[in-house]
Task: structure prediction
Amino acid sequence: MYWKSLYPLALALAVKAESSASCSFDDATMTAAASISQLASCPTLEGTLEISGDGIGSLDLSSVEEIKGDVHIFNSSSATDINLNQLGKISGSLSIDALTQLHVIDFTKLSQIEDLSLISLPSLSTINLNTGISKLGNLKVSDTALSDLSGLIGQITSVNQLDVDNNKNITQLQLNNLQEVTEGLILSFNGDDCEISLNSLQYASNLTLQDTGSISASNLSSVNGSLIIAYNKYDSFELPVEEVGGALQIFANDDLTDFSLGNLTKVGGEVRIFNNSELEDMSESFASLKSIKGAVNIEGSFSNLTMPDLEEVDGDFTVKTDNEDFDCKEFKKLQSSKKIEGHNFKCIAPEKNASVSGSASLATETFDASGSADDDEDEESSSTKSDSGAGYLGSGIVAVFLTTLFSVLI
Ligand SMILES: *[C@@H]1O[C@H](CO)[C@@H](O)[C@H](O)[C@H]1NC(C)=O
Ligand SMILES: *[C@@H]1O[C@H](CO)[C@@H](O)[C@H](O)[C@H]1NC(C)=O
Ligand SMILES: *[C@@H]1O[C@H](CO)[C@@H](O)[C@H](O)[C@H]1NC(C)=O
Ligand SMILES: *[C@@H]1O[C@H](CO)[C@@H](O)[C@H](O)[C@H]1NC(C)=O
Ligand SMILES: *[C@@H]1O[C@H](CO)[C@@H](O)[C@H](O)[C@H]1NC(C)=O
Ligand SMILES: *[C@@H]1O[C@H](CO)[C@@H](O)[C@H](O)[C@H]1NC(C)=O
Ligand SMILES: *[C@@H]1O[C@H](CO)[C@@H](O)[C@H](O)[C@H]1NC(C)=O
Ligand SMILES: *[C@@H]1O[C@H](CO)[C@@H](O)[C@H](O)[C@H]1NC(C)=O
Ligand SMILES: *[C@@H]1O[C@H](CO)[C@@H](O)[C@H](O)[C@H]1NC(C)=O
Result:
């Protein structure tokens, strides 16, 4: 049978009895229990169907075996439960959102999901599943009262996009069968100290971990897109990732004192590290990093940061710390040997009190690839450290001299 969108549809359900078990909708909207009861003759739902409004209480969809189309159940403060206990497969999409009183969904038979989203369901604490989900395309679970997602995601080995965020009752996400994420994995702002384990994960496209209590991903070799680690609660983390295809961002991790991305060799986008107030030690963080295709912007109060293997930075470069133990020498060397190709180079740390700082700041200006003298008075003065290498300072002065000579000749 085929239902054309007549709004409101409730009275328009002149159901044509066809032998087909499939009901097809063309942007149909149902707002009343009476119209919804018509779905009892529809084992398969196709097309686009919306169910919405305060005329719904207990939603009985127990005849539905497969959702091939797009079904959207939303915006109701009266819906309390959804019975989809014969639904085995969502080959289209099912999205359920903004149902303030919904507390249970019966998915007893569900095993395969192409696309499911559960959003803004603050009372939803129970999903009934029997054997659980074995095949999953895209899943978003956001702002619910669910505390355990193991039936939905515990068995899956591969997923396109998985987003679990703002579910304050979730204290752990054990995804230890998950091997690949072809699009994105977002695990953000769930319960306090939410523990994440992803120990079979080999690659993810985008990976975002925010406000988590711990992370274990012992097999992760590649993040094809961006890796974002923010607002987390741990004081240290370690990831074996070798390559990040997009941006690497580490910010607002208030307790973080150190981390290790010791196997990371290549970043395809920018590297941004900021607002990690306790982050002091990055001496081992990037032990193998060779190339950064984007810009580098690292700011904080760290006393050390080394990238001993770094050979190439294609974008602008800013390293700025307010810790006076920091030494810019390493990065200035890289810049003077043309390994940092971006137009702007800045390495800024507080000047140590020393009398020779005048000549040192001359030297650093000369090394500024932007051509404009660096206006920041906090420019680190490498000469103030007695061990900073007279050769380096010497070549700086020679460069100043040559530059001056050059401009005189012009
Ligand atoms: C949600 O439903 C309420 C009442 O039924 C209605 O006033 C409101 O406009 C709806 N909101 C959306 C976003 O559809
Ligand atoms: C969710 O957490 C709140 C507060 O932490 C608690 O009161 C509530 O019982 C929890 N709900 C479930 C379903 O665990
Ligand atoms: C991501 O990277 C892994 C390892 O380099 C590769 O096997 C996989 O095909 C890539 N996936 C995508 C979606 O690019
Ligand atoms: C990854 O994230 C970037 C932005 O952070 C976005 O542009 C891109 O579409 C995402 N890729 C996937 C596969 O989700
Ligand atoms: C880690 O990945 C390798 C393949 O790269 C695989 O052989 C191994 O079983 C994985 N380990 C875990 C714990 O999943
Ligand atoms: C780097 O990889 C080796 C094995 O290849 C592993 O033992 C080590 O822990 C990894 N380093 C980090 C920081 O994860
Ligand atoms: C970083 O810190 C500054 C100053 O405290 C704050 O204004 C800004 O919102 C923070 N940014 C993020 C992304 O946390
Ligand atoms: C790096 O800084 C930390 C914290 O200030 C310090 O404990 C550590 O010894 C330093 N490491 C190196 C190699 O300088
Ligand atoms: C630098 O000088 C200021 C005042 O001139 C002083 O307070 C500070 O302790 C000095 N720092 C060092 C490392 O000597």
